[in-house]
Amino acid sequence: MLRHLRRNAVAYLALVVALGTGTAYAAASIPNGSVTAAKLHANAVTSTKIKNGSIKSKDLKKPVWAQSSTLGAATPPAPTPDVVSVAPYAFTLPHAGRTTLTVFIPALTANCPGSATPSVGLYIDTLAINGTRTNVPGAGNTRPIQLTATLPLAGGSHAAQVGITCAGGTPSPSSPGAETWTVILTD
Questions:
Q1: Contact between residue 156 and residue 70 where contact means Cβ atoms under 8 Å apart
Q2: CA distance readout (Å), 184 to 64, 96, 107, 135, 153
Q3: Is 180 helix (H, G, I), strand (E, B) or coil?
């Protein structure tokens, strides 16, 4: 064994030097700007490979498009005497712009006189918001309701509400729990 090591000492030394410094030499010899996004493999840069605090908000691209929809939703009826307001919310926008409003009600039920099915919709400044109407479950089927709308609004004070209505009567809603409103001014 000792004889083998003596004969190949230079080879082993060269191997150790090549393995130890080859990577460092390769990394140091790459000129700045030569690694581009097109040359990186998909998902090559992960959060663990980015130094904490090195990415600033100016480095992130603002979203240019977002979509949200409630399947099967329609326009709520215009405010009529039988629309009962649940979760009223007043807010003030600092300036005009495209605004996303979301209301989350953790438990909502309603009953109508007769066999009518109650519906719920989002109203902003007493105007029914298109695409936010959906049916409300009966008392035996409590479930959460979330309504979202994105629309242009003027700066200043606004009143939002969730309106529940019945065809041909006044609904009797129940919404135990705390409602959550989120208002995002995107422009």
A1: no
A2: 14, 12, 24, 26, 11
A3: strand
> Is residue 73 over pLDDT 70?
no
Alpha carbon distance 153, 124 (integer Å): 10
What's the rounded Cα separation, in Å, for the pair 173 and 152? Answer: 30
Which of 186, 179, 167, 169 lies closest to 77, judged by CA?
A: 167
pLDDT band at 158 (very low <50, low <70, confident <90, very high): very high
pLDDT tens digits for range 47-68? 788 888 888 777 766 654 444 4
User: SS3 letters for 112-165?
Assistant: CCCCCCCEEEEEECCEECCCCEEECCCHHHCEEEEEEEEEEECCEEEEEEEEEE
| Angle (nearest 5°) at CA 116 between 113 and 120 | 100
Q: For the chain, how long is the longest CA-to-CA vector? A: 104
In this prediction the pTM is 0.57
Structural domains of the chain, ranges and CATH numbers in brackets: 2-56 (no CATH), 84-185 (2.60.120.40)
Start-to-end Cα distance in the chain: 76
Structure tokens of 14? Answer: 């060269």
